[in-house]
Structures are given as C-alpha cells and as structure tokens.
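The step that takes the researchers longest sounds almost clerical: writing a folded protein down as plain text. The outcome of that step, for a single protein, is printed below.
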Amino acid sequence: MYGYSGKILHIDLASRKTWVETKPEEWYKTYIGGVSMASRLCWENIEAGCDPLSPDNPICIAGGLFAGTPVPVGGKWGLASKSPLTGFIADSLSGSWFAVALKRARWDGIVIHNASDEWVSVFVDDDRVEFRDAAHLVGKNTYDTEDAIREEMGDDQVRAACIGPAGENLSRIANVSNDGRKAGRCGQGAVWGSKKLKALAIRGTRGVAVADPD
C-alpha cells in the first residue's frame, strides 16, 4: 500500500508493554486516515460504558492520508477518545509537524491504553518506544514542555503532543497542543491527564512511499 505502513502501534501505560497490530488494505480504504481512522480505533478498543477519565478510555491517534507528502496542508492528524465533556466518543483534528513525524516513523496510528501510576512521557523513535519520567514537566505550559522535550532529546526534529496545567488538572475543556496548534475539541487534554500522560513525542526518520510523486 502506498501512503500507509499497515501498522498500528499499541502502548500500555500500566504494564509498559507495546505491541503492533496490522490492518488489511480494505480497512484503510474504508477509514482513510485522520479523525475517521482515530474514531474507528477508539470504537474497536474502548470498553462499553467506561468513564471517560478511567483507564479503560483509550487515546487513539491517526495520521492524515497526505501527512509527510508535498500535498499542501496535508500535515493533519486525528485524535479520538470518549469525551469527558459530552460522554460520547469524540474526535479532534490538528495540523502540525507532529503528523509528519508520525508518518515518517511508519505508524499509521497509535492507541494508548490504561493509565500510569506516575507522570510519564512516551517517546516513539521510529520502531523504538521509550517511557520517560515526566515529573519535572508537570506544571509547565505546552510551549515550555515541547521545548524541554526537544532539549532533552538533543534534536529539534522531535515533535511532541502534550498537555499543560489544564489537562493535568482534568479540566473538561483542556486541549492537546502540538507545535503551537491544538487538538481542541471535547476535552481530550483531560483524558491525557487522567492517564498521567504529559506528552507523546515522536521522531520519524524515514520517508513516505507515494504512488506518483508528480
């Protein structure tokens, strides 16, 4: 398949385990990418009737179809979880280099399960996943958090999606920030805060295969 890797990365914050799920081509033709794919991943992984701020509510991320390609404004990614604001599965769309990093790391989507006991950030470095203590980042706003993560990694190509104090304190209108852009609908930041997930950072170093570069 062009434009896709065929792989979804699953991350368990409680057990610190990861696994890879493969999807058939027909699945991609049906859900395409972005908020559609993220919402479908949420539907497939959520526990019926779960509290939005419980460990059973997954964080589901999917890159847009054109992320990482020269298509104008193609750098989009979708985020879906059960909303603490509405009580329904909700999606939010954002556009930034975070979407490009996700695609270049060769992940079509990421599903984050359960909750951490302590504040954590997750670093996806192509195929490698690292769980990092984030206690020193708690209380920082999203701009300072992103800067701190890139400084720690020593690489300004690392892109991060993160929450600030609103998400940490479970505000039901908290957003998720990335490169100064926001996934701002339906209180997704509170879901991250409930899992003690301060940030998801990605470094992708590989290109994106397209059918016709012209």
